[in-house]
Amino acid sequence: MKIKYIQGDLLKAPEIVIIHGCNCKGVMGSGVAKLIKEQHPLAFKEYRKVFEETGLFLGDVIWVHSNNKIIANCLTQQDFGTDKVQVDYDAVECCMTEINRNCIVHGITAVAMPKIGAGLAGGDWNIIEKIIETSLTYPIPVVYKVD
Fold first, then answer.
1. Domains in the chain and their CATH numbers?
2. Can you tell me the distance from the alpha carbon of 12 to that of 83, in angstroms, rounded to the nearest whole number?
3. Contact of 29 with 82, CB cutoff 8 Å
């Protein structure tokens, strides 16, 4: 599905589902993940609970209902830091496939996200954009550009 780009605040998006990338270390300390943690503390609490009980695994999605939104914590990177590319493209694809499947089941027609994996995680947006457009066949992915 072709991505629709919008300039605006991801956390004020009208779409019910907000997708963002997380690491597998149980930390949401910067970037969009930190904003999610601050404005949707339940999303962090559930993410942290999974981390403590079973561990976090690349490609998994932790779904959380919070403040009239559904937050999709996508485990797209093993670690964090800006010293190297952290995003795992295969994990992005797994997450998008899971999101696609759930959106079909629940009739969700659009999802909001940042340029997932291309910010602090250091990924190449051209690669990630193609993954999203081929993996999300049902919901329209709406990418909010935050400058």
1. 4-145 (3.40.220.10)
2. 31
3. no
